[in-house]
Amino acid sequence: MMCRRSVLRACLIFHDVMKEEKARGPSAEYCRYLIKPTTVTECLHTFCKSCIVQHFEDSNDCPKCGIQVHETNPLEMLRLDNTLEEVIFKLVPGLREKEQQQEIEFWRRNKSKESPDEDGPISKKARVDEDVKGDGDYHRSDPQIAICLDCLRNNGQMGENIVKGLMKKFIRCSRRVTVGTIKKFLSLKLKLPSSYELDVLCNGEIMGKDHTMEFIYMTRWRLRGENAYPMVLEYRPRIDFG
């Protein structure tokens, strides 16, 4: 589910891109077409991934505003915007299918360069490398959400059962992170025994381990406006109601 803010942002960016493309004409240096939209975190300008990566091979500055993105490695300051990509695909009918077809044709044209033991458009080794890179990304390219992890103290905790508050209780994580992952994070930070179980609550309601942060924000977090961020999740020792 996409929030209205994401849709509005995508529409505004798409409108600006189309306007600039028309003004610059066919001789434009960058296609600026939002395929795999990638945002420069320093200035929040968004570009086609292949164009901005190619630009940073020769320059460390943003091609739109001129700000220095990074002294030595500007590629570190790029983030894929998957939400924006989905919105763009919805705004341009057939774009997703066109890109997929172009990718298939590309691999067909380069098939002769592949070794005999490769069984598809992308080699097994390439897929393994892709998986390794994906594991190391930890969803950093996903849309992020700010969360406050607050210790719920007024529940009769006594002696060794007391769960302490975090030194740093504000975090940013992927909207796809689940409550189960948050519990593992808390157990690690609080150095709890592996058998120790926690409850995670939002607005006093215990959250299921498979609930994502996005789901909780959209369905359980009732604050809006200035008080909407960060979303507050409370934790406590698990209470057995059986």
Automatic annotation (TrEMBL):
Domain RING-type: 31-65
GO-annotated biological processes: nervous system development
Keyword annotations of the record: Metal-binding, Nucleus, Repressor, Transcription, Transcription regulation, Zinc, Zinc-finger
Region (Disordered): 106-137
Xref: PROSITE patterns: ZF_RING_1 (PS00518), ZF_RING_2 (PS50089)
Composition-biased stretches (Basic and acidic residues): 106-115, 126-137
Major subcellular site: nucleus
GO annotation, cellular component aspect: nucleus
Compartments in which it is found: Nucleus
Molecular function GO labels: zinc ion binding
Top-level taxon of the source organism: Eukaryota
Cross-referenced Pfam families: RAWUL, zf-C3HC4_2
Protein name, as recorded: RING-type domain-containing protein
Lineage start: Eukaryota, Metazoa, Chordata, Craniata, Vertebrata
